[in-house]
Design goal:
Layout (H helix, E strand, L loop, with lengths): L12 E10 L2 E11 L4 E5 L6 H8 L7 E6 L2 E2 L6 H5 L3 E3 L11 H5 L6 E2 L2 E2 L1 H14 L15 H14 L4 E5 L7 H16 L3 E5 L3 H7 L2 E6 L2 E7 L5 H9 L22 E10 L2 E9 L3 E5 L6 H8 L7 E6 L2 E2 L5 H7 L1 E4 L3 H5 L6 H5 L4 H4 L7 H15 L15 H13 L5 E5 L7 H16 L3 E5 L3 H4 L4 E6 L2 E7 L4 H8 L8
Parallel strand pairs: 3-10, 3-11, 6-9, 9-10, 15-20, 15-21, 18-19, 19-20
Antiparallel strand pairs: 1-2, 1-4, 4-5, 7-8, 11-12, 13-14, 13-16, 16-17, 21-22
């Protein structure tokens, strides 16, 4: 917001011309940001733009090489003074820092429990927790096990913990990534109430629509530089995407509505019959060779569980999954791979990647037996395959031996895609394939869908992202564990969203 706001009002936090280098790589180059009292300020940019590095400086995890961070016009405390930083800022990350096996009260006062004669005063701690939760109108029980709370409730407990230290500046990192529509609405309502009570937010999201719903200001980073800061109302979506990508226009995704229909005698590659699991029941559909089918619904609709069952990641209660007419055993990943199923799982950090290994090792993980005798692949063969995937998917890296933990989120997801494609699968299952990645990485990942389809493969895209679903020939909507609607390509956003939310827009 550099020039927009009168200097008479002190920014809650500001970074002034901060630069940070890691070896020869500049993670930030002379970046500035000002976040004003009581606002929600969006920080957006492609993966690798420098958002995480800037957040690490605003939260006291890293010191800039040059430049300065200030709170209320005063220089930030020394990095070593953790208590002083906690009084000024807290970050609520996409992956919760709440300890699931402890109670809400224990999480709120961890490492600072009230004590009497050297022993934790449990009644006092529960009373203090209840007072804190009531003050900030957070409706959870202080004695509840944190692991039993919803994702939404755990985020609110983290916010309450931050506020209890005295911080009135909260960084929210992808706060809606694991929430469904109703939970997002409730979280946004709570954020707005907290803003009115003097809490300021820095809001990081890849869902640009959310920026317009909840934020008053936005800062765009690109290639480690500050591009623009402006009121959200002054930056239409097209201009925002242009600022993020350096290119005109919106997301360039092949729309399935322009495709020719498949011949009527096209063979079925994947068939799901009367499938039932923990959160879904009586799910049936088929995907033909060369067809892309979307499976969407709220987070709690069962769409992810169905896709994971097809990939062998989950067992089913009943029903059948057939690939090219052959039944698959339940909950058996090796059998799914052998049957010709490739999968991009929902959680790339836990199911999709070994972060300490290289691009080549990750990409070739499912085909080592093909690259070498006795399942041991020579490094040269692994690296050749890794380089082939780097070229095919546009993975920005220093080469096939680049350790995956050093890649941006979008490039990590491309490595997961490379591993899914390595076996040349007949059926490709993509679960939230563009979650948490930047606009250009989305385009690259979704263009793979089109290439795979043209090769005669069947593709199932289980996602809540509208851009992911535009690549689909038809979209199946799940609601409370069942398929309730089917939309052919060319659907209108409002109709699909209404179906996902369980609302009919065309009732007589």
């Amino acid at each position: 917001m550099s020039e927009m706001t009168s200097s008479a009002v002190s920014a809650v936090v500001e970074a002034l011309d901060v630069t940070k280098r890691f070896g020869s790589t500049a993670a930030l180059k002379d970046v500035s940001i000002r976040v004003m009292p009581g606002e929600s300020h969006a920080l957006v940019g492609r993966n690798g733009a420098g958002k995480s590095t800037l957040v690490s400086m605003l939260s006291g995890l890293r010191k800039p090489d040059t430049g300065e961070v200030r709170f209320g016009g005063v220089a930030a405390p020394p990095i070593a003074d953790r208590d002083a930083w906690r009084e000024r800022v807290a970050c609520v990350y996409q992956h919760s820092t709440i300890i699931r096996d402890l109670s809400v009260a224990e999480n709120l006062f961890i490492n600072r429990q009230p004590a009497r004669r050297g022993v934790i005063d449990w009644p006092a701690m529960r009373r203090d927790a209840r007072t804190l939760l009531d003050h900030w109108k957070i409706d959870v029980r202080e004695d509840a096990r944190a692991g039993d709370l919803s994702v939404e409730a755990r985020q609110l407990v983290e916010i309450a913990r931050a506020l209890s230290y005295g911080a009135r500046f909260i960084i929210l990192d992808e706060p809606t990534a694991q929430l469904d529509g109703d939970e997002i609405k409730r979280l946004f309502k709570r954020i707005q109430e907290l803003q009115r009570e003097g809490v300021t937010f820095l809001f990081i999201s890849h869902h640009l629509q959310e920026v317009y719903e909840i934020c008053q200001a936005v800062t765009v980073l690109r290639d480690a530089r500050h591009i623009v800061s402006a009121p959200v109302s002054a930056l239409p979506r097209e201009q925002l995407i242009e600022a993020m990508t350096g290119e005109r226009g919106g997301l360039n995704v092949a729309d399935a509505a322009t495709r020719e229909a498949l011949p009527p005698d096209t063979k079925i590659a994947l068939e799901v019959a009367n499938l039932a699991g923990v959160d879904y029941d009586d799910v049936s559909f088929a995907v033909k060779r060369g067809e892309v089918v979307g499976l969407t619904g709220a987070t709690s609709s069962g769409r992810t569980s169905v896709a994971e069952a097809i990939a062998g990641l989950r067992s089913v209660k009943s029903g059948e999954i057939r690939v090219d007419g052959n039944a698959l055993p339940s909950g058996d990943v090796p059998a799914a791979l052998a049957a010709g199923i490739g999968c991009v799982p929902k959680d790339r950090h836990h199911e999709g990647l070994v972060l300490s290994q290289s691009i080549a090792e990750n990409a070739s993980m499912t085909i080592t037996r093909l690259l070498g005798r006795f399942g041991i692949a020579p490094p040269a063969k692994k690296n050749a395959f890794g380089q082939k995937m780097i070229d095919a998917l546009g993975i920005v890296s220093q080469g096939p031996e680049h350790v995956v933990s050093g890649l941006s989120g979008g490039n990590q997801q491309k490595v997961v895609m490379a591993r899914a494609l390595a076996t040349d699968p007949d059926v490709l299952v993509l679960i939230d394939p563009t979650a948490g990645v930047d606009v250009k990485s989305k385009e690259a990942l979704l263009s793979v869908v089109d290439r795979v389809r043209e090769d005669g493969k069947a593709v199932l895209v289980a996602s809540g992202e509208l851009d992911d679903l535009r690549t689909c020939d038809r979209v199946l909507v799940m609601f409370r564990g069942r398929i309730v609607a089917e939309f052919p390509a060319g659907w209108q956003d409002h109709d699909l969203i209404a179906s996902v939310e369980g609302v009919s827009l065309h009732e007589e």
